[in-house]
């Protein structure tokens, strides 16, 4: 795995939650890490994601080999919601429908023109919609009923 130093927000969450006994991630000033940029470019263009090598549904560690379809959210540094959204898009993102309630997630999740939801190499990604009021469960149920009806014909 390779970290993109130019995409780091500097929150330090990844270094804090690193599960290894000897910390694999250590926060350092950006200026001291600029030599990592060519490595990121190589990994991104030549190596890519490895979600076809291991079953991403076996455990959380395996899921991290899949492409996240949620990135660069612009949420507050240290936001506790965004790691969960990233993880769920790694598992189900190419077939996910998000029924979002108004709140923080509607701000960092749907701020046009730069949404954090992205797509995979096949152009598939999460569908996201926001309900203005606190009825996202009912709104989501309607989306589910509509999708079911379209599947049955």
Short recap of the structure:
With 153 residues, this protein is mostly helical. The protein has helices at residues 13-17, 37-47, 60-63, 82-92, 104-110, 136-152; strands at residues 97-101, 127-131.
Q: Secondary-structure map with pairings?
A:
Blueprint: H1 13-17, H2 37-47, H3 60-63, H4 82-92, E1 97-101, H5 104-110, E2 127-131, H6 136-152
Parallel strand pairs: 1-2
Report on this structure.
The structure is a single chain. This protein is globular. The chain has a two-stranded parallel sheet with strand order 1-2. It has helices at residues 13-17, 37-47, 60-63, 82-92, 104-110, 136-152, and strands at residues 97-101, 127-131. The chain starts with 12 loop residues before the first helix and ends with a helix. The chain is mainly alpha-helical and 153 residues long. The mean pLDDT is 87. It is built from six helices and two strands. β1 (97-101), α5 (104-110) and β2 form a beta-alpha-beta unit.
- Measured by DSSP, the beta-strand proportion falls in 5-15%
| SS summary, helix count | 6
Rg of Cα set: 18 Å
> Average pLDDT across residues?
87
Distance linking N and C termini: 43 Å
Any descriptors?
153 residues; mainly alpha; 6 helices; globular
